[in-house]
Amino acid sequence: MSLFQLFWIFFYVGTFTIGGGLVAITLMQQEIVGRGLISPERFTNMIAISESTPGPIGINMATYIGYETHGIIGSIVVTVGTVLPSLIVIMLIARFFGKFQEKPGVKAAFYGLRAGSTGLIAVAAAQVILIAILTVGNWKTTGSLAAIADWRAVILFLGVFALSRKFDWHPVFFILIGAIFGVFFMK
Predict the structure, then answer these.
(1) pLDDT truncated to tens, each residue of the chain (187 aa)?
(2) Helices 3-15 and 21-28, axial angle in degrees (round to 10)
(3) Which of 11, 25, 12, 14 lies closest to 61 in space, CA to CA?
């Protein structure tokens, strides 16, 4: 795929990513994994790396995918493609929002956008769980419910979840626990 085509894919993702970077993950997966540029497993690894690095996950993912497909130039072009629609929309909103913010149609539109964004975030979370914790393909070959779970990943997830409920530690600590466990025990 050409750099120009990749720019327009991420311009599209940036245009319809209302609700944050987690919403972008769903669109990126459809566009990038769906076109066969990156495998689903590689995409999941990119999510983990992008989530653990500073900055918005959607931009981190876009930059990473651009780098993987076209090097440094690709990372710059794809990042610009992702950010440009938001920049344009924010400039337009800043210019006209004061006049329209109390209109019933505008309020209703924002209410609907919140609901849609919540749904897209839920889909992204479910897809990450299916890839990271469950191996649905094992169900087809073995027919066993016990075979679909990666039990090490399930135990890690439940352990970190329990720790996060018991202790009021900074989220970075839990990210480090997951990374250390993944490096040493998930080979």
Answers:
(1) 888 999 999 898 888 876 667 778 888 888 888 888 888 888 888 888 887 777 788 888 888 889 988 999 999 999 999 889 888 988 888 888 777 777 888 888 888 888 888 888 888 778 777 777 776 665 566 666 666 777 777 888 888 888 888 888 888 887 787 778 777 776 5
(2) 130
(3) 25
- Write the burial class of residue 41 (CB in 10 Å: 0-12 exposed, 13-18 middle, 19+ buried): exposed
Q: Are 17 and 24 in contact (CB under 8 A)?
A: yes
Task: Give the integer Cα–Cα distance in Å for 146 and 23.
Answer: 31
Cα–Cα distance, 134 to 141 (Å, whole number): 14
For the whole model, what pTM was predicted? 0.56
What burial class does residue 67 get, using C-beta atoms within 10 Å of its C-beta: 0-12 exposed, 13-18 middle, 19+ buried? middle
C-beta atoms surrounding 165 within 10 Å: 8
Q: Which of helix, strand or coil describes residue 134?
A: strand
Residue burial 76-109, b: 16+ Cβ < 10 Å; e: rest: ebbbbbbbebeeeeeeeeeeeeeeeeeeeeeeee
d(CA 80, CA 120): 23
CB 120 within 8 A of CB 19: yes
